[in-house]
Amino acid sequence: MSEEQTVSLVDVLEEDEELEEEASAVLAGSDSDHCSYPQGYVKRQALYACNTCTPKGGEAAGVCLACSYKCHEGHDLFELYTKRNFRCDCGNRKFSELQCKLYPEKEEVNSLNKYSQNFFGVYCTCGRPYPDPDDQVEDEMIQCVVCEDWLHGRHLGCLVPDCVELQEMICEACMNKNPFLWTYAAHLAVPGVAVQVKEETGTDESNTNLPKKEEKPSCKRSREEAEPSCRLKELDAIGKKRVQSGAVFWPSAWRSRLCSCNACKESLSEAGLSFLLDESDTVLAYENKGKSNEQGQQRHDPLMSALDNLNRVQQLEIIHGYNDMKTELKDFLQRFAAEGKVVTPDDIRQFFEQQQSRKRQRVDAGRFYCT
Ligand SMILES: [Zn+2]
Ligand SMILES: [Zn+2]
Ligand SMILES: [Zn+2]
Ligand SMILES: [Zn+2]
Ligand SMILES: [Zn+2]
Ligand SMILES: [Zn+2]
Fold it and tell me: How remote is the CA of residue 292 from the centroid of ligand 2, in Å?
């Protein structure tokens, strides 16, 4: 084993502080000390729902990261991962007893917040909790970038691509609500392989047996006078077909390929989808923003590279269980110290993997990316 691949216990303990910073980078713009309410509707932030304060049957409410720590400590929280354009509800009219400790001066309600079943701890088209005590099937949860609900891989109605790390998913319901997306899908998206198709055609290009929905206008504006260059209309004119069922996976930077002519902008806005023209709306951009705060820090030591190489699920779980983890990491490292051994990146990785499988059994809400 070469010098570079090993790190002494002392080194690792010194990195502890940096690990913490790295961890917080994954939660990016989410401030763990200050309620985000004064920032208004935050473009994207980590959110939590409190089953203790606002249980099912009442009104849905969401609280920011800092409030989840400071105002709802010990409560039964659902981790909602991140959602866009949300303003912290902590302590507002929806909370009968609780007062926000961080920012009590809130309006009664935040009328522009959008709520979903996730705020009551249920997910997917099947409306189940995550983890689901009645479900023994190992399955990842993937977030739809439009409705922001989390869906089981097996309930997407399509095959989940091997690596979805950099891809964005739009669920079937959201696709059908916005049929022009099917036109883009035919050209931009990962080829669809529907899994609920009864007649197997063998290849994904010859889906002639599938019900066709092409007759639907794929753009609300399609009957208006064509602007000189509307990419959507051009794509429409090419008439390329694809399976129009199941969720759709989109490759990285697909948003930048959407038409942003005035007509398209307007119909996106009417559909509440303006964020699709905004690359900085993506979860990836959110995470990168956090990471860029970390630039300038040394990145070449084995502990940091091990963390870098973890997938997003593992990283997120580390964040959410960070404090538990810190204690356990120290215990783990003590064993090496006792045996006089050096700690390798593999040891660290193994530790995190054990952490992850333990967390998975404990965590109250699902927000897993497939890797
Ligand atoms: Zn808050
Ligand atoms: Zn609470
Ligand atoms: Zn609060
Ligand atoms: Zn499901
Ligand atoms: Zn959706
Ligand atoms: Zn256009």
Answer: 32
